[in-house]
Design goal:
The structure is a homodimer. Chain A is of the alpha+beta class. Helices cover 31% and strands 23% of the residues of chain A. In chain A, strand 18 and strand 19 form a beta hairpin. In chain A, helix 2 packs antiparallel against helix 5. Chains A, B: It holds the Pfam family FAD_binding_4.
Chain lengths: 462, 462
């Protein structure tokens, strides 16, 4: 860690930046070196002291190129940051250096039928609003849509709202293009198309600096926020699966929250009767009649229903998607600071039995939160349970138990690309691409831990 | 059969009709007593001599009610007909009586966001054109879209184009409402909503006279017709499955046609190189780049690509959907009168081996045609193979062989609701509903063969 830090040469860097805005005020360095890693007590302990040496704030791509060239020449770590809403410390510099905040690059490039291209620093909600003006909408967004940048989602995320219909971001057609700047003394610009776009997806900014991305748009739908409740969780899981698999009902989101989880979520708790298990979902308003039939067939009741867009655009309201994905944990943390979470992949055909086993083994310590999404041609079920934090050993025992019953873990208490994946590795094509665009390994060093700089460059980052 | 026929009393019927248009010209009786049952040599032999005694042509619902009341009072069979493009003899009267042609009821009721309501006799292409004016489109249509009425599709069909994304018509949300006239001396009007609409779906007009239906609409997409070809059928099947399961590519149609099938289809043969297996498909034009990646990854090539709407609206052109579903057989029959077909359900995970077994057992006698569709939460694979006709015994051996390798048969060489289904039965709720709306069993008698009129009414149709 120290080897790189000691190299930070402020006068040289400031000279190289020219008129690019920057700051090294301690409050700024602290603020911009953090993201939502504090969801995890493990990451908090590991990352809380990490600090950038300088925050750079490019206004356009020329500024980005200037910063990249300077870092390459001065051999400085470069961490690219959006709004800092990631949960894995994606935006936290492990070895100091420069954090580059991309929110100044927030221009729309163009909208066509079925596609949109914009700079990475635009807020997702703003980008979606631009698409809606043209009768279109984004397929995917995170529960932090109102805060996050599209580039941060792209570089740090894998799916989220929309994945119940369109699968993850890496499914063919979900990412159309990316403009990538290399970290070299003379940076190059690379346009990635189609499946190659996956080379820079969810690599925490370690495989190139993305300045523009191109995403698919779908025709806009009148989404309806709905909260459906059930007297027991298996009914909620069965209804959730039926809705997630209903090809005749347009659906954007299907989640399941156990009653103890709901009890920790203050703004949700007031919308549903106490003690009920809740399915937050978003469906096309034209399909509410079909939804009501499905709810009745599963013994549920609709406790809340609202126009999704109205809820999203009113800062005083909470749209249903803000009760799901990462926001479930966020709300719970506001009620109880000893909460954390865990990501897992249930077997959808054995999910009720798997969850019953978890409940029996960890009563009151693991609280149900599930998300449905499409994966490998089918609807799959992710567990994003809340965990009552006690010790790292207890957390490990929850993970071990999940794996013992066939639920794979994607550990959110780690800060590397590899350890957070179910496969515990970075794809070979991403590693090869990193060697091409970041030969000295300066981009977010330590995050793609299996990367080894090409021979001849290794000493530079030693 | 004769018991009912002898009862036909023309003066009484004509008097009852009042000013409702009707005909008993022999050419009309022949024409309007037929549909596309001649796809099947078995049905041709069985149905070719069947004739209505009178064709009634209602102009509006009041006419329909008058005809229904007259048939109820005079105890006459009543067969409801759209454009007559069904393949099962749906529109053929087994016991004479009245055929009621619904094409005069062709009014749009309304279009809203996500839904459309119209009288049953409107052509599907015309209905879709009305929806498109409002930026919306129908989810499903048959390959006979340019000929068929929406009511005929609804009463005689189960899915078709669109089912690869939205599943069959009976999936929740795919049929929203139906207005049903009962066959009683004083007919009643019943509005069916939601899942109850299934009571009159694919019952060949035997469970009530439908005068209006309400269907879901999706936001319109710029569909692109595409023909992709492969050097061998397993590559075509694998590509077809990958596309059918690609949640990031909007797709309306994915079919597979073996090279020998293509060779029989004159207008298709000129568009692709000889000897290639072909995947006709429709995808959103904005997703062509993702499609090209997928085609390349499977070793295929794109031989034809065109705007779907332009092809559909030009009478001189053949849109890609007219190479699929029933039209595959139709084109082949134009080249070779000894062709018929067979419907089956392959196991998508064993489809290559199943097809290899069929090929080995019936070389040159069974020609590959597959359709992908969504069923029970997954993409499924239907075989709609062409069969070189020789004898009923040979056809039976093809069916038996399919069942022996685990491919269920939905026999299209029968004229009853039950025998054409994989389960060989009519659902109990449809039978109960028929007893309520058609207590004397006058609607398309003989088609729902397991129906027994309620006690007290049985002698009337004996």
């Amino acid at each position: 860690m120290s080897a790189v830090l000691t190299r930070f040469d402020k006068p040289a860097m400031v000279a190289a930046l020219g008129d690019v805005p920057w700051s090294d005020a301690p409050a700024q360095l602290k603020l911009k070196s953090r993201d939502f890693y504090w969801f995890s007590p493990v990451l908090t302990e590991k990352l809380d002291a990490c600090r950038a040496d300088l925050i750079a704030m490019p206004r356009d791509e020329a500024d980005v190129i200037r910063i990249a060239a300077a870092c390459a020449r001065l051999r400085l770590p470069l961490v690219v940051r959006g709004a800092g809403t990631g949960n894995y410390g994606q935006a936290t510099p492990l070895f100091g250096g420069v954090v580059m905040e991309m929110t100044g690059l927030n221009r729309l490039r163009w909208i066509e039928s079925g596609r949109i291209r914009a700079q990475v620093g635009i807020r997702i909600a703003a980008l979606d609003a631009l698409a809606r003006k043209e009768g279109q909408e984004l397929r995917h967004y995170p529960s932090t849509k109102r805060l996050s940048t599209i580039g941060g989602f792209f570089a740090g995320g894998s799916g989220g709202v929309g994945a119940v219909t369109h699968g993850g971001l890496r499914e063919p057609g979900n990412l159309l293009g990316a403009r990538v700047i290399t970290v070299e003394e003379t940076p190059r610009i690379i346009e990635l198309r189609g499946q190659d776009t996956g080379l820079v997806n969810r690599t925490f900014g370690s495989t190139g600096i993305v300045t523009e991305i191109e995403m698919p748009l779908d025709p806009v739908r009148p989404w309806q926020d709905v909260l459906v409740s059930f007297p027991e969780i298996n009914a909620a899981l069965r209804f959730g699966r039926a809705l997630a698999e209903a090809p005749g009902i347009a659906r954007k989101l299907v989640s399941v929250l156990g009653a103890p989880t709901v009890a920790l979520m203050t703004p949700l708790r007031v919308l549903v009767p106490a003690g009920r298990d809740v399915v937050p979902c978003m469906v096309d308003a034209a399909h509410m009649e079909a939804l009501r039939d499905l709810v009745a067939a599963h013994g549920g009741q609709i406790d809340h229903s609202a126009d999704s867009l109205e809820a999203e655009t009113d800062p005083a309201r909470t749209p249903v998607f803000e009760f799901t994905y990462g926001h479930t944990t966020l709300h719970a943390l506001k009620s109880d600071k000893a909460i954390t979470y865990l990501q897992s992949l249930y077997d959808i055909d054995r999910a009720e039995a798997q969850w019953a086993a978890v409940q029996a083994r960890f009563p009151d310590q693991v609280l149900a939160h599930f998300e449905f999404f499409v994966w490998e041609g089918r609807v799959a079920l992710s567990g994003v349970h809340l965990i009552r934090w006690s010790t790292p050993g207890h957390l490990q025992s929850v993970m071990d138990f999940h794996e013992s019953i066939g639920a794979a873990i994607a550990n959110p208490h780690v800060s590397t690309v590899e350890d957070g994946s179910r496969y515990k590795l970075a794809p070979g094509d991403q590693l090869r691409f990193k060697a091409e665009v970041d030969p000295r390994g300066l981009l977010n060093p330590g995050k793609m831990r299996s990367f080894v700089p090409p021979a001849g460059n290794q000493k530079d980052v030693a």
